[in-house]
Amino acid sequence: MGSATTSAMTTGTTPVTAFARFARWFRRRLVVFAGLLTLGYLLLPNVVVTVFSFNDPKGRFNYAWQGFSADAWRDPCGVSGLCGSLAVSLQIAAWATLGTTVLGTMIAFALARHRFRARGAVNSLIFLPMAMPEVVMAASLLTLFLNMGAQLGFWTILIAHVMFCLSFVVVAVKARVMSMDPRLEEAAQDLYAGPVQTFVRVTLPIAAPGIAAGALLAFALSFDDFIITNFTAGSTVTFPMFVWGSAQRGTPVQINVIGTAMFVVAVVFVLAGTAVANRRKKQQE
Amino acid sequence: MTTVTKKTTNTMTTTRTATDHSGDVRLSGITKTYGSFTAVHPLDLTVPEGSFFALLGASGCGKTTTLRMIAGLEEPTAGTVSLGGQDVSHLPPYKRPVNTVFQSYALFPHLDVFENVAFGLRRRGIRSVRKQVEEMLELVQLGEHARKKPHQLSGGQQQRVAVARALINHPRVLLLDEPLGALDLKLRRQMQLELKRIQTEVGITFIHVTHDQEEAMTMADTVAVMNAGRVEQLGPPAELYENPRTTFVANFLGTSNLLEAEVDAASGDDIVLRAGVSTLVLPRARCSAPATAGGKVLAGVRPEKISLVHADDSGEVPAGRNRITGRIAATSFTGVSTQYVVDSPVCPRFEVYAQNVDRDPRLVPGAEVVLHWNPAHTFGLDAAQDIDAGVGTAEEEALA
User: Fold this and answer.
1) Cα A59 to Cα A64: distance, rounded to the nearest angstrom
2) Nearest CB to A192 within list B123, B148, B149
3) In the predicted model, is pLDDT for residue B21 greater than 90?
4) Measured between alpha carbons, how far is A272 from B147 in angstroms, rounded to an integer?
5) What is the pTM of this model?
6) Are A157 and A281 in the same domain?
7) How far is B124 from chain A (nearest CA, A)?
8) Tens-digit pLDDT profile for residues A8-55
9) Using the beta-carbon criterion (under 8 Å), do B108 and A188 form an inter-chain contact?
10) Mutation to test the A interface, candidates B102, B126, B178, most A Cβ within 10 Å
11) What's the rounded Cα separation, in Å, for the pair B229 and B30?
């Protein structure tokens, strides 16, 4: 652009064409630029997390770049309580995923396939937890648990997580089941498959992508939930609670290490999945 | 196949019929109602073993419901279904020796062609399926596509997978629910012949549900025409076509010219009818309505049975022919034939199909003509029916 402006002063005709040429070049790639900007917007926080996992902070806070160090990567559990909270979070997420996937799949099938008296009501009630402000629900849950005399801790967190993840699983699985041709199950029955075999051999494999999507969603939601967990945890500390707590006093670099590691694991899973799908496609062609 | 039949016959214990039609499909008084709507009225039907049977009718006539009751996918409200003398009315579909080719095929999308075809064998606990599946894929000419997923196949190929998947189980009866409905016309013709060939080869009873009258007539040995939950008429295609007994059958199966006529005399083998100024002769054997002098019947004749001559040549019409006069309203040339619509005082739109052998250049719209046909080609129907029943239904279905 600089040369274009200087030449504009000397010749008088070229600047128009040079600028027009740039404008045309830019306009033609507008979609690419918009895409890159959006992607940057989405990924910048992840980049910061990763970069600062190699920081060597002089004080207690990991907010300014001070120098490169891989110390935190060498000793991720070096901060007391961090890996313990991570283990609690992973356990809760795993059990919550299992519970919600089983329950949610059953609810989704009931809603999509069977006509029963309260079907309409259940269909809308199931979305209520999604619509309720999380902090209100968290406070109410605490009230409920206290009134029931429940001991706050691992189990109350798990119950709360299953509750708020359920709607998401139901939505994901129901969409899949609704789009499934009911004749496929009739065909299975016609081909000597009893009810159990029909479910295992035909219904479940076809509904699997929806169930998997619901399960992943439940895991992610449960793993990083803070508000509801904070209200129902008692003295138990999950990973998000640990991060929140340490942010008051100083942020250890290890938090960034754990965050980056989870991100890498997720990316590896996605890449592996894509690779398998591609190879399968190629084999069929 | 004989061994299979024998085995089942031996295991049958209680309800074996005296006459040994061991492979017959027998429906006795089966009825299906949904609330106040009756989809199938009490229906008695026997499909002989090894036959190619078609249930023909417009959509909503109850033909698919009937098929689903045989398959066990629908439970009859009343009546029984028996296969080879064994009452299967209350058996679930997976316990009936019957397989279905579904409309739009219902192939399992997550399994490849081989596993789709092997599905029934595997469910019955058969371990080594490879040889049978390969033979079956050869029969339907899909050997090289065994490892493809259904969505990678064309419509015609998917259709053949559906047939192979059902046939490999050697069912007593193969049920086909509009199996060719999703195919284009040329492919449909080809598959009609293919299915007929397979049926002849394997000798299994085929029950075919269709709304396409031409398809039913091409393929089936016996056709049952259904209308509003009842069988209107049942018989070999030629008999249904040549001698329909209701206006619905006359209009639904091909085209019929129907005209209202008064019975002038009903003695001997022929009935003499009066329609306007014309006198028509109708063989008594071809009249399904009670004909008494002074009563009314509908006289019918198929368009291709009629000869057309210009009014100036009316003297050339041989004696003893049924004749009617009229004026050509429209003509359309279709290549092998020319179709004429003739307005006549006794019937407003008489259709005539003439082979394009010697075309008379005088036969243009507006020309006065004489229509004549062999009295033996006339059929008589009860005049109390709707003369237009079944008109246009077939065409609408084909477009849908």
Assistant:
1) 10
2) B123
3) no
4) 23
5) 0.77
6) no
7) 7
8) 444 555 567 888 898 898 889 999 999 999 999 999 999 999 999 998
9) yes
10) B102
11) 11
